[in-house]
Structures are given as C-alpha cells and as structure tokens.
Amino acid sequence: MARPSNRAPDEMRRVSLERSVARYAEGSCLVKFGETHVIVTASVEERAPAWLRGSGKGWVTAEYSMLPRATHERTRRESTAGKPSGRTQEIQRLIGRSLRSVVDLTALNERQITVDCDVIQADGGTRTASITGAWVALHDCFQWMIARQMIPANPLKDHVAAISCGISHGVPVLDLDYAEDSVAETDANFVMTGSGGIVEVQGTAEGAPFSEEELLSLMGLAKQGVAKLVDLQKLAVA
C-alpha cells in the first residue's frame, strides 16, 4: 500500500519548530508538520481567573483558530459568527489540558498564561502541531519570566507533544496528512509526555470498529512519533 505522500507507514512528515517569530509575545513558535503551519504565541497576564483568586495558583489556557484561507476554500471567521464552533472549543480545551499536564501551576503564583494557536495553513494534524509548538512557546515564555525575576525557575515538569495515527487501507500509519486522514478507516490523536506518560487519546472508527491489537499498533507508532517530536523540542530550545 502506497501512502498519498509516498512515506513509509512509520514515517512522519518533515517537522520544524522556529522560535521567536512574534515580536511582542513573551514566547512564540512557528510549527510546521509538512504543509500544516501554525503560529503559536504565549502571553502573560498578571492575574489568575476569578475562580482561582486567593488560591496562590496560576493557570495555563489556550485559544485556537484557523485563518479563512488556511484551507482549500475560504471559511468564515468564527468571530463573525458570534462564537467559536464546537470543534474549535474542543481543540482549544485539548491544548490547554495538554499543557497544564506538564506545568507546576503553583509556581506561577496568581498569573495566567494564554497560548494562542493560529493555523495559517492546514493539511491535517492541526491540533497535534499546535500542542507540539505550544510547548516551545510556553518554554520561552517561562524563560522570559525568569529573566525578569517573576518566577525563580521554569515551571515545566516535562515535555508534551502530540501526533496523529490512523489505519489506512488496513495498515497502521503515522502522522496523517489531509489526503490520508479524509479516507482513513480509523483516525486517532495521541498526546504524550517526554517521559512516556499518556495525557489523552482520541480515537474514532470511520467505518468498521478497530481492534485492540490495532489500537496497540497505533499506540506503538505514536510513542515513536512523540519521542522524535520531543527530541526536536529539545533541539529547538537548546
């Protein structure tokens, strides 16, 4: 079975992580998974959400959006519709949960970090690219805070990254692009930490249900993919 991209089943797209791409943001990263490109910024707010005030604890949250011509046809800006779509809300909650899983929130005191993920070009895997790039932007945001003595040390406890896997023509494959994702029998997203912990698994059968054996095959591919992404994160911030 040949993949549309002619990649091997366990071969990822070319991934790059470029830091400091936004002049005014405390941390930023342009992340590319093949033809999927996302700009991620991290911003410090000197106040925690109202429900955390007085707790001595900070918060990390995320917002996600896709530019109108990130896809083949123009999509309407969600701001003109009055509210984000259900898909957008689900993705930005996933990004926030993923980042909080590796942050010592008490070390932030009562501050909030907002991570904005803006998709400028989409070709599958926008949420996984966002999470992977968000870690880099968050790392640099914390370094910015350390340099200004806002916090004594980096609150990051581990790396976190994400990758998609799927079953295409009966074969488990890693890092699906849109051409593959749109016809795959099974589509799954895996969020994992650098130490191998599982943060979230999202898996859906588009046709026939997938087996436990196939799930374990996808998990194995995801572990390989996330390990490579973590290595790239380490190189990016070295």
Automatic annotation (TrEMBL):
Its EC number is 2.7.7.56. Homohexameric ring arranged as a trimer of dimers. One of its GO terms (biological process) is rRNA catabolic process. It comes from the Bacteria. This is Ribonuclease PH. It comes from Terrihabitans soli. CDD domains: RNase_PH_bact (cd11362). It is an enzyme of class 2 (transferase). Signal peptide: none annotated.
